[in-house]
Amino acid sequence: MTSGPRAAGQYVVGMPMWIWVTRSMSSYDQATAKATAGGVTFTATAKVASIRWGMGDATMVTCHGPGTPYSADCGKSMYPACGHRYERSAADQPDGSCKGTVTATWTAPALNDGGEFTETRQTAFSVQVGEIQVLN
To answer: How far is 46 from 51, CA to CA, in rounded Å?
Structure first.
């Protein structure tokens, strides 16, 4: 998981959190494999069908695509493709963190029967969520 605009793993209540996956063969891009048995070679190409983020605050976010990487020139703008806003601090949680998971569901076509093979990969993450108050 990659995110912005704050340093990785530290967020503020109400601030837009951009979330995305960095494209690679094991995280988002297509993965192709070949197998040969009895003189027959089979090639399968798997692709990500969905990415679901369990944000650790009882919120689920489903991204349709890898998301958009944050860059500093975006400032505090809303996320264009996939993101979240924490509504409360995690101060009451161990170490002030929300414990979440990102789950990618990969699919590949099955042998000529119109079905699909499905594999799910899950990664845990932890983000500190704090609150800022302005005093006069």
So the answer is: 14
